[in-house]
Queue: 4 jobs
Job 1
Amino acid sequence: MLVFLQIIMGAFVAGIDAGFGFNTWPLMEGKWIPDNLIPLSPVWLNMFENHLTVQFTHRMLGYLIAIMAIVMFAFQFGQGASALRAWVTLIFLMIIAQILLGILTLLLVVPIPLALLHQGLAFVALSVIVVATTKTS
Ligand code: HEM
């Protein structure tokens, strides 16, 4: 569900070319939480039209997904069926690769091959998560 939401938010980043600004990592404008994050009114408009907010929320949700993948991976040791462990490991590796690709895409100011890889892996990862859910539940 979170990865699905993140893909939609990725489309907002690409849609308004928000990846062409704030090309530093991990900080944005020298800060973990940049100033002037919600300048537009009404507030929800920032989620779609403000480059800073759109990119910031895409980053933050990406980190949350990464933390969940790491926690899942860490807790799988010594428990569950081996098929479940294999799925968890695969999902963990894909999410880490996806985060690294996102950071590289940002730092190199959106080269098309990297942006395409980042977009493509997102859909592969979502598909793997859906299949894993049906196979293990
Ligand atoms: C689980 C984590 C992530 C997923 C599933 C994800 C997914 C996506 C998707 C699907 C797009 C492209 C949307 C489109 O073209 O329609 C996108 C765009 C982008 N993402 Fe991510 N993303 C993740 C994490 C990150 C992170 C951590 C960063 C940077 C710190 C990042 C940076 C970008 C940038 C710069 C773009 C715009 C590329 C462009 O203009 O074509 N992403 N993301």
Job 2
Amino acid sequence: MKQQTTLVEVENLVIKFPVRGGDRKKKFITPVDYVSLEIKKGEVLALVGESGSGKTTIGRALVRLLKPTEGNIIVDGKNVNTIKGKDLMNYRKVAQMIFQDPFGSLNPVKSIESHLKFPLKKHQGFKGLALDQKITDLLLQVGLTPVNEIRKKHPHELSGGQRQRLAIARALAVNPQFIVADEPTSMLDVSIRAGILQLMNELKRDLGLSYLYITHDLASARYFGDRIMVLYGGKVMEIADSKALIKNPINPYTKLLLSATPGSDIKVNLKDMNNEAPDLSEGRKGCPFVHRCPLATDICKETMPDLVEQKENHFVACHHAEDSIEKMIFN
Ligand SMILES: Nc1ncnc2c1ncn2[C@@H]1O[C@H](COP(=O)(O)OP(=O)(O)O)[C@@H](O)[C@H]1O
Ligand SMILES: [Mg+2]
């Protein structure tokens, strides 16, 4: 498919959270630190990185479940970072989020059909027979059959995969253009993960949906993502077309992630402090991976490298990117 028009544009997004410090002074962490990205219409951007790197926080900001501290989020030409009230309600029709645990967003006392009725009535004005037909259509679209049985059930009577399908149907009920899918398969049995990814892929194809697909699994990022963005310590480390990134990773952190996937030729021997979590404190300096990176030098402690286009459409934030290219083994 041709992917021309930009749907989502994020410029210098910063998100801070207050944390309790020992003294009285208010302290903050910055789990998202000047992140910029772009998602085209009908495109899937996969966001990968280990736990705590800021993926969910970015996702929540993009659907405006949380308000950014700084930066711009422009969706379909409109800046949505400071909208509230009616504008925010309208934005809920454009952007929806699917969570890791579908149970968390479902109401245990409501039937499956009433989960869909509410958004269809409220956001789309469906009623009567048309409403009934639309519920049937949505359930069929996400593969929840036999429809007449499923409609009357309650969330606890569905399997994990079926619950995630319901969460997807509910997101679709507002007819969105953009979906943030936050590790949508990580709580599901391995055997049913592929089916959920396949469904999301079909919806991309049939409805032209754009996605931010959050995952820590590079194999699924490669399968579903058109491009992959690697995040660490709230910073973008690398961004490229999925196949190029998996085939020729450049940032040492991306190589570390890949070295953990079965069949990889890449070996990364980390420094002794290899379990250290990235520093998220406000005003931190340098590259977040500096403590673990085998290529780190003094400059990496002092300055965060810019994202530089190392190959066509392949951007890397690393002072030693040139050294790192083609290098498979790090000691
Ligand atoms: N509401 C919040 N208040 C304070 N800290 C938060 C909040 N949400 C997330 N964090 C912190 O921000 C960091 C990034 O979290 P998150 O975005 O959930 O990462 P990921 O999804 O990549 O695992 C973590 O250190 C987390 O504890
Ligand atoms: Mg998360």
Job 3
Amino acid sequence: MEKIKILAIVGSLRKDSFNRQLAMAAKAIIGDRAVFKMLDYDDIPLMNQDIEFPAPEAVKRIREEVKSSDGIWFFTPEYNHFFPGVLKNLIDWLSRPVSDKEPQVLAGKPAAISGISPSMNGTALAQDHLVTLISFLNMSVMNSPRLTIPNAMQQLDSEGKLLPDAGNPYLEKQANAFLDFIEKQIDF
Ligand SMILES: Cc1cc2nc3c(=O)[nH]c(=O)nc-3n(C[C@H](O)[C@H](O)[C@H](O)COP(=O)(O)O)c2cc1C
């Protein structure tokens, strides 16, 4: 049986992003139960319909990565009670049909959402907005469990890195639930 392929999309381009560190922790928890890949997308241009067709090479690449994955796990920060613009831009590109014969690549894909922030709400508001968007795009959203981790600054080591157990055991619970959720939706 082929391994499940999870594509992690981090809504922050920041090198030391807490959300990126959370995604790395999820990868460690998943271990060899699935292939877990992070999407690099900092070369995606701003959406501009003047350059939509033919799609820029970077857009073609991310579409292929999404197409070949069995599930997408979003790790998003919260910016002004929303998810960051870089993530909206990425999803806007992915929301467009590939051509007049090929539809957009997100429809039907299982999706999980996690986030960490320094504030008390742990990205809950950003996540709600993200659910609205990806539901509109017909992704299959795992609404429960979602993971919101508040008070990021209280969960750092002396070098400012996220403690390895930040979010545990909830992260582990979500990882197990997402593997299960994907398995129930794909035919191997
Ligand atoms: C433009 C901007 C707006 C922000 N708004 C919020 C917010 O609404 N709620 C919140 O919890 N944190 C907010 N923050 C702080 C971020 O949560 C914090 O910088 C966090 O570390 C970003 O995630 P990252 O570490 O994954 O890059 C904001 C940061 C920026 C740059």
Job 4
Amino acid sequence: MATKKIIKFKPNIMKKLKNMGIILVIILGCFIYYRIQINDLKKIGYSEKAATNIFFKWKKEEVLALGKNKTLNKAFESPEYKEKNFDSYSKIKYTDDKYVISNINNLIKRGYTNEEITMILNHGSGEDVREFAKRKKVRYLEEFYSIDYARIKYYDRYVKYMDEAREDEETSVLLVNLDMDKNEYEDPIIIKNFSYTMLVNKHRKLEKNYIPKNLVTINEEDATDKGMKLNRTAYIAFKQMKKAAEKEGYHLLINSAYRSYQDQEEIAATYLDLYGSAYVDKYVLKPGFSEHQTGLSFDVASADTNIFANSDEYKWIVDNCYKFGFIYRFKKEYENMTGIRHEAWHYRYVGKKIAKEIYEKDLSLEEYYAMNL
Ligand SMILES: [Zn+2]
């Protein structure tokens, strides 16, 4: 006779299952609690990684009270996070680079205040700041770095220039940014990329093989000679300017435009034969250092008189060229900046917007460049 087997759990198994259930509920509850905490932080802008670390470092309430803070977010994402620097992270303005947290830690170690650290981070790349943080605390931070365009990596050059040239901080920053603390032609920056705002001068040269794009041949009726070339956009702007000048009775002609590196070599050789080396060193640019190689500059002549500075065209172009995107490049007042003696005849295309700003603020291209680019 078959007997029906009734499976009966032993009481201790039941108990175990019950305990497991309780544990599961607790785990689930903890998980839900954890997700809610993380989501509270994510909701105000913290990343998953930062929020997780904030939670496990028991900083949630403090962080929530501070609200969204990019530097804190980065600090909590970083393995470099230091508990003792929490307050500084929350006060230092964020800059977007991979070294920001280690840089902040190092600058705190050097004794800089939060405001000073914000200032330092603002004036250089992460790499520059990393180098800067290796040195002892510097003396003139506010003096130089309250100037927008001062760069952290030039600190020593600013100090040296200020001492030697007895210039004020602002002038020192401006001139050092332009490499004017170096001798002319010494250790120049090589300019490789074409742009309408490119700066070529005695500290910034173009190489032998540099030929600007979009050179076009200037029409005979616009120039004093055949075969001259200019950047297409600059030439179109010149033609518009010429037309506008003609309407008012002035006659502009291009006297010289693009000059290749080889052209510059020939010019230097010719002047050397004619006037000797003292003259050439003083008045003739070394090959590669002439803005004419950019294709954006031209010398202008008046159709009515030989000396352009005496012409009515000169008076007209000085106050009108900016409307067409040109600047009066080598003004008398800019000699210290440009390193070039006054040239009434030389104009340079930079585009209308910048030409207008340069005209209205009465800046050399060097100053505009140091401040903005
Ligand atoms: Zn010129």
